[in-house]
Amino acid sequence: MSDRTPLMAGNWKMNLNHLEAIAHVQKLAFALADKDHEAVEVAVLPPFVDLRSVQTLVEGDKLKIKYGAQDISAHDSGAYTGEISGPMLAKLKCAYAVVGHSERRQYHNESDELCNAKVKAAFRNDLTPILCVGEGLDVRKAGNQVAHTLAQVDGGLKDVPAEQAETIVIAYEPVWAIGTGEVATPEDAQEVCGAIRGRLAELYGQEVADKVRIQYGGSVKSGNVAAIMAQPDVDGALIGGASLDADEFVKIVRFRDQ
Ligand SMILES: O=C[C@H](O)COP(=O)(O)O
Question: Which residues does the annotation say bind substrate (predicted)?
């Protein structure tokens, strides 16, 4: 039994304006309040424009909900139109910054090299990166999911020291399971999450590897979360669509009750 605290993080993607965000977080807070969820860390990852509203609510009502951004610039300031920097996110007291989500890799051509720079930008600004990795359908069909995903882990962590690496969150998200309703089997999730922990042990030693939280993401719902969370190397979930429904998200947070 690991002593890693599970992290359930809701990635809202490009959904919910700031008014909807306020209503959603209030609903979440209300639903979470009737029972302690100390043993599970809960986070939301809203669009950038919602972050200030979410911060105000979380701080004002002392909610036990963390929040973070869906992306971060590799640069801390300067002429980078449209980018949002680590210092800006830190000022909003974000806890997390997602790096290398497959939708950014796919639609914005984000490379492992850029992801590595973003991981370093997050650490430089005291934000915890959630580094997303995972294979597409063609890679899965060819049986190369482990090698493909470990190469992304290597690339994202290049020159990241052990004292930072031990605090990172890695999200294994097989691209073919994202938003498709095609959930990977618990064994599929464990195969790759276990291999990721193995690679972390090779890179940094077992003690560091044992501290890193590895999430699974891809069509996680209340009905499948318990089986996925029962896997020894799965320490939480990165939830897309189901996180937009507060009641469903809370059921996922309470996976032990499912
Ligand atoms: O970041 C979340 C993942 O892309 C999973 O999304 P999904 O739960 O809608 O499949």
Answer: 11-13, 179, 219, 240-241
Name the residue type at position 150. L
What are 163's two structure tokens? 């004292």
Q: What is the mean pLDDT of each run of 10 residues along the chain (258 residues)?
A: 90 98 97 80 98 98 96 98 98 98 97 98 98 96 97 98 98 92 91 98 98 97 96 98 97 92
Distance of CA 99 to the CA centre of its chain: 8
Residue 167 has φ and ψ, to the nearest 5°, of -100, -5
Q: Looking at the predicted complex, does its ipTM rise above 0.85?
A: yes
pTM: 0.97
- Distance between CA atoms of residues 122 and 87, nearest Å: 9
Q: Is the CB of 110 under 6 A from ligand 1?
A: no
Distance 36 CA to ligand 1 centre (A): 26
Q: How many CB atoms lie within 10 A of CB 2?
A: 12
In the chain, where the domains are located? 7-257
Write out the two tokens for 112. Answer: 């492992």
Specify the CATH number of the domain 7-257: 3.20.20.70
Nearest protein Cα to ligand 1, atom 3: 240
